[in-house]
Write a structure and sequence with these properties.
The complex is a heterotrimer of chains A (271), B (357) and C (269).
Chain A: H1 4-29, H2 45-52, H3 54-86, H4 90-105, H5 108-128, H6 137-162, H7 165-173, H8 178-207, H9 210-215, H10 223-233, H11 238-259, H12 263-270
Helix pairs in contact in A: 1-11, 2-11, 3-6, 3-8, 4-6, 6-8, 7-8
Chain B: E1 4-15, E2 18-29, E3 33-37, H1 44-52, E4 59-64, E5 67-68, E6 79-82, H2 94-104, H3 109-122, H4 138-150, E7 156-160, H5 168-185, E8 188-193, H6 196-202, E9 205-210, E10 213-218, H7 220-225, H8 230-235, E11 240-248, E12 251-254, E13 257-260, E14 270-276, E15 281-284, E16 291-300, E17 305-311, E18 314-320, E19 329-334, E20 339-343
Parallel strand pairs in B: 3-8, 3-9, 6-7, 7-8
Antiparallel strand pairs in B: 1-2, 1-4, 4-5, 9-10, 11-12, 11-14, 12-13, 14-20, 15-19, 16-17, 16-19, 17-18
Chain C: H1 8-30, H2 40-43, H3 48-81, H4 83-86, H5 88-99, H6 102-113, H7 118-125, H8 137-161, H9 165-173, H10 178-207, H11 210-215, H12 223-232, H13 237-261
The chains are: A mainly alpha (271), B alpha+beta (357), C mainly alpha (269).
């Protein structure tokens, strides 16, 4: 069989391919000079400029708020949906699951323009009644919740399938009401799936560009849309600083998730 | 030059610093049904995997038909393995599964088709060629796994606890099937199990293993009736194992009571282990036997009654078709022939012995 | 525990924000400005400009998908095989880029591939011909492969690592060498993962406009760019919708193909 060292080397090459660009950005974020090819000495000035930029900070705030809110809503909605779907009969179940999967399987651009058409049409309709409706934070939130839903459902489902129904029945047998039994027995048991659905939604929302791009209207920039509009004008070194920070943040969060006792959920969720 | 088909010499295997097999020496002759029997972790599966080529021993050699195959990869050995969870190729149908090995060795289509028919007939699954593995029951899958292995005409078939996942009735049926197949094929079966009943039913020879060492090798009757140490006695069948003193030849003292027996050569006043099978304990009216006691427990087991009798301050396990209720006073008698004397082991692991199986 | 009413919130939401928006696209795609039914928008795909964009998109996404597959498959094999791969950390390393912001990752390649960028300068100093890849389709392929490779690695690795080791042992036991085992046993069994990976790379790369904007200098137009411009530059939503419907056809085809191999459990990222 192919020798071990060839295998290791191949692994190394792929890792190099994946991380060299990121590494370059990190290095450049500390570069005193603007160009990407000359090292002008170590400097933190890009980080400083980054934090002084009001637009960037506003976008950051939007991004985090959106991620949090959409994740919360999607988790609640999605968990309920997962439970309902789990109990459905085969045919209804597969229809519902297909609907759940649509945003995931559809190209983002199609989902994005579909939303745009919807919101603008609604806006036009409402203006007939004299109500002013504009795309902005709210529409972006709706968009994010919608594309987060499938991830929540697909995270909670496996946990539901593994659920030991006897535990729930034992609770009923011992006198608990259905609601009590759900909150005290079922929910804790599926919690890893719910949490990983939440985390997944949060991350997907943070990272989203395409859908936000179409439904943000004139205000409500997220980091992604801000970066895109800046990049079209040309690269600013503050971008390198931003990249480094975001990379570190993701790295730290994922490390924590992987090292925590919930590590196995993340891995299960990858399946 | 004896008929040694397989010769394991000084095999040592270490996993994570733990010696799974320590200087194991064992050889097998042709056309027998041999069982490696022992509890989990005793090294029996490791031994089988070394034979199959899926593990390499850290020390020692594996000789097959006079050839050193220690480092030979599994695909070049003329042994075949039946895996515990069948390991059928789920993306192929039954015929393709069975034909796999034959296609690899380049046999002609006519030959292969013949062999498939023969194999399916042998395992009583005629006509299953086009079925998919997933559509078969556990027992059927097991038989296909066997069919897939034997079509390649190996000299030795290795079976790794193949009946573990089947229910009792099916397991018993399969045991008879396996013996029939072995006789029809005329090849050596090396079988690994932790189930002593299985081993007693099917084997020509049993190798009892514990902690990487061989405890005893012999026919089922030998192992059952004349276990050489406490571990074997306890592992095979139910038994009463008592510490005793060998007073002199043919006389043993258990709990200050003299029992005549038939074993010799254990010395004078030496501490020994005594094993008495529960079905050999005869209960009678008080005073009629060697020692008296009281029945403390009784369970109906269908085949017999199982009772515990307190005598000499000890619980004696007794199996009998005659029922004695709890509280009844009885006497215990054992035919001297049924008292088995064993050496006390020097350590928990007995030394491996080179023996001809 | 189950009350039908539990599913209502979700179903309402789904109807409002998944089904209806899609219906809007269908409506706009099949009508003209006056609201009359027309197939003009769908036929718009046949104009020189649009068909060129579609063709280029198909070409680049197929090439990228193929490259991703060729890179990812051996990787998945190596990872499932070695003890190294069993440790979560190495998998973590390969998955981590997936969670990094998509735009920033693409930015990284702009930096590397730019004229007078890192690689260009490197080549210059080494005396090699200039590395003029930026703003060419090749740069876009680089970007696609880089962005989507982890999405190919993950499903394939998941499926391969779940293959019962004894099935592989059985193949070897029956006489197959390593190559035969790979070809006759491992690859067929890994097919669901491969299909999943292909879907997760092909669809996004077919429909992207970000990568082509950033790495193609705005001059190379993929079908995603065309559609985006129809909507954002306010030209014609009807044409844009029509083109989207055509695009969705391709997506549906790939969905149908992949569901044939799906074991029904759904693939989560």
């Amino acid at each position: 069989m192919i020798k071990k060292w060839v295998q290791r080397f191949y692994l190394f090459l792929i890792i190099l391919f994946l991380y060299a660009p990121i590494g370059t950005l990190i290095v450049l974020s500390f570069n005193n000079s603007r160009t990407s090819v000359k090292w002008g000495g170590f400097s933190l000035k890009w980080y400083q400029q980054l934090f002084e930029s009001k637009t960037i900070l506003a976008a950051l705030g939007n991004t985090l708020l959106l991620a949090l809110l959409s994740a919360i809503f999607a988790t609640i909605l999605g968990t309920l949906a997962a439970i309902a779907i789990y109990h459905m009969k085969k045919r209804r179940q597969s229809i519902c699951m297909s609907i759940v999967n649509i945003p995931m399987l559809n190209a983002e651009i199609v989902t994005g323009i579909a939303f745009m058409l919807l919101f603008i049409s609604v806006g036009n309709l409402l203006s007939i009644f004299g109500i002013h409706f504009e795309m902005g934070f709210g529409t972006v939130l709706i968009g994010h919740i919608t594309f987060n839903l499938p991830y929540v459902v697909l995270s909670v489902m496996p946990k539901l399938k593994q659920l030991n129904l006897s535990m729930y029945e034992a609770a009923l047998d011992l006198g608990a009401g259905e609601g009590q039994a759900f909150f005290r027995i079922v929910l804790p048991d599926i919690m890893p799936g719910v949490l990983s659905g939440f985390l997944l939604s949060f991350t997907m929302s943070l990272d989203d560009f395409v859908i936000t791009h179409f439904v943000k209207g004139l205000g409500a920039d997220t980091l992604s849309t801000l970066i895109y509009s800046e990049l079209r004008k040309g690269i600013k070194p503050e971008m390198y600083a931003l990249s480094t920070i975001m990379f570190l943040a993701v790295f730290v969060v994922l490390m924590l998730v992987n090292l925590s006792p919930q590590k196995h959920i993340k891995e299960e969720q990858y399946r | 030059m004896s008929n040694r088909l397989i010769d394991l010499q000084h095999i040592t295997k270490i996993y994570d610093g733990h010696k799974v097999l320590d200087d194991l020496n064992l050889y097998f002759n042709e056309n027998k049904f041999l069982t490696l029997l022992g509890p989990s972790g005793c090294g029996k599966t490791t031994t089988l995997r070394i034979l199959g080529g899926f593990e390499t021993p850290d020390e020692g050699r594996v000789i097959f038909n006079g050839e050193d195959i220690t480092n030979l990869p599994p695909n070049k050995r003329t042994l075949n393995t039946v895996f515990q969870k069948y390991a059928l190729f789920t993306h192929m149908n039954i015929a393709e599964n069975i034909a796999f090995g034959l296609k690899i060795s380049g046999k002609s289509k006519a030959y292969i088709d013949d062999k498939i028919k023969y194999a399916l007939k042998l395992v009583n699954l005629d006509g299953y060629e086009k079925r998919m593995p997933d559509s078969l029951s556990g027992g059927q899958q097991q038989r296909i796994a066997i069919a897939r292995a034997i079509v390649n005409e190996p000299k030795v078939l290795l079976l790794d606890e193949p009946l573990g996942a089947l229910d009792l009735k099916l397991r018993q049926e399969m045991q008879y099937e396996l013996i029939r197949m072995k006789n029809e094929l005329g090849i050596t079966f090396i079988y690994v199990t932790h189930d002593q009943e299985e081993a007693l039913t099917m084997s020509d020879t049993i190798v009892v293993m514990n902690q990487g060492y061989i405890q005893q090798i012999g026919s089922p009757e030998d192992i059952y009736n004349e276990p050489t140490n406490a571990f074997v006695a306890d592992f095979i069948g139910d038994s009463n194992i008592f510490p005793g003193t060998m007073v002199e030849d043919k006389v043993v003292k258990i709990f200050d009571t003299i029992f005549p027996c038939v074993d010799t050569g254990f010395g004078h006043n030496k501490p020994v282990d005594v094993v008495i099978r529960p079905e050999d304990v005869e209960l009678g009216k008080p005073g009629k036997g060697t020692v008296d006691g009281v029945v403390s427990h009784q369970i109906f087991k269908g085949v017999h009654y199982e009772m515990e009798v307190t005598a000499c301050g000890q619980e004696w396990l007794v199996q009998s078709t005659k029922m004695h209720p709890v509280g009844e006073h009885v006497s215990i008698f054992v035919d001297p022939f049924n008292i088995q004397i064993m050496n006390k082991p020097e350590s928990e692991d007995e030394e491996a012995v080179v023996l001809d199986v | 525990m189950y009350k039908k009413s539990l599913s209502y919130p979700y179903l309402v939401w789904a109807a409002a924000f998944i089904i209806i928006p899609l219906l809007f696209i269908v409506y706009y795609g099949l009508t003209d400005r006056s609201g009359a039914f027309t197939l003009e928008n769908l036929m718009a795909i046949t104009t020189a400009e649009h068909s060129k964009a579609l063709f280029l998109s198909l070409l680049l996404s197929l090439v990228s998908t193929a490259i991703c597959l060729l890179l990812a498959y051996p990787l998945a094999l190596i990872l499932s095989n070695s003890k190294l791969g069993r440790s979560g950390f190495i998998i973590f390393l390969f998955i981590l880029p997936m969670w990094m912001n998509f735009l920033l990752r693409t930015l990284a390649w702009v930096v590397l591939l730019d004229t007078n960028g890192v690689l260009d300068t490197l080549f210059k100093t080494l005396g090699l011909p200039r590395f003029k890849i930026i703003n060419t389709p090749a740069a876009i392929v680089f970007g696609m492969v880089y962005d989507f490779l982890p999405f190919m690695i993950l499903p394939i690795y998941n499926v391969i690592s779940k293959i019962d080791i004894n099935v592989i042992n059985a193949a070897r036991d029956l006489g197959a060498n390593s190559f035969q085992t790979l070809y006759k046993v491992i690859f067929p069994l890994s097919l669901p993962g491969v299909i999943s990976g292909i879907t997760m790379v092909f669809v996004p790369s077919l429909t992207t406009f970000v990568i082509s904007t950033l790495l193609g200098g705005g001059k190379i137009l993929l079908i995603g760019n065309v559609i985006e411009q129809e909507f954002m530059k306010g030209t014609s939503w009807h044409v844009g919708s029509g083109l989207s419907l055509v695009l969705m056809l391709f997506i549906i085809i790939s969905m149908v193909l992949s569901s044939k191999y799906d074991n029904g459990e759904g693939n989560v990222l």
